[in-house]
TrEMBL record:
Domain Outer membrane protein beta-barrel as annotated: residue spans: 19-168
Keyword Lipid biosynthesis: no
Signal peptide (from-to): 1-20
Keywords associated with the record: Signal
Superkingdom of source: Bacteria
Keyword Thylakoid recorded: no
Naturally occurring in which organism (per UniProt): Chryseolinea soli
Database matches in Pfam families: OMP_b-brl_2
Record InterPro entries: Beta-barrel_OMP_2, OMP/PagP_B-barrel
Descriptive protein name: PorT family protein
Gene3D superfamilies: 2.40.160.20
Length: 195
């Protein structure tokens, strides 16, 4: 599954670059304020936000002056916090965003995000336990946000990511428990190539 995802990402990035008028790319990292919504038999609740880090690479492929695509590959910390208990998860996320440049400074982004679960652990004062088997291996989300590109190759972005798929992996789901990820994401990027 991981090899297939890697090959698919490489092919996608290559094809986007081949048809685009202007291609640039770089690295990015930042802070996630991650959380989850839990629902059971019509009742919905959310724990507290869990600060986590993310980082990876991005490619911007403009098809016109204003419109383009921005695919990314990110290693992203996610999860939630409830009192002393922290659920720390890590995903390999691939957002594929439509990018609209208002001008050379400001842009808007929106599109789907596909994630593969890398790890999940419950942590409290007594230690940590593996919780990966409690969650499904993939996650589908939608992301939307804004970006600011500065002349010195630096860029900043703020994004809201909302999970669409139920990630709970419960065999005996008597109470119809469902869980979905969401996060506020703040990023700083540095352009390595392109205009």
């Amino acid at each position: 599954m991981k090899k297939f995802t890697t090959v698919l990402c490489i092919m996608f990035f290559a094809s986007v670059g081949a048809f685009a008028q202007g291609v640039s790319g770089g690295i990015k990292a930042g802070l996630n304020l991650a959380n989850q919504t839990y629902s059971s038999s019509g009742y919905t609740t959310s724990p507290s936000f869990l600060p986590a880090l993310h980082g990876g690479v991005y490619l911007t492929a403009m098809f016109s002056e204003h419109l383009g695509l921005q695919p990314e590959i990110l290693y992203s910390g996610q999860g939630a916090k409830s009192g002393d208990l922290k659920l720390k998860m890590a995903y390999i996320n691939v957002p594929v965003l439509v990018r609209y440049n208002v001008n050379s400074l400001l842009s808007f982004h929106a599109g789907p995000q596909f994630g593969v679960l890398a790890s999940a652990k419950d942590k409290d004062s007594s230690g940590s336990t593996d919780a990966k088997d409690q969650f499904k291996s993939t996650d589908v989300s939608v992301a939307a946000g804004i970006g600011i590109d500065l002349p010195m190759k630096l860029n900043f972005s703020f994004r809201f990511v909302k999970g669409l798929s139920d990630i709970a992996n419960i065999d005996d789901n008597t109470y119809n428990v469902k869980a979905k990820n969401y996060a506020l994401q703040f990023s700083v990027g540095y352009k390595l190539f392109g205009k």
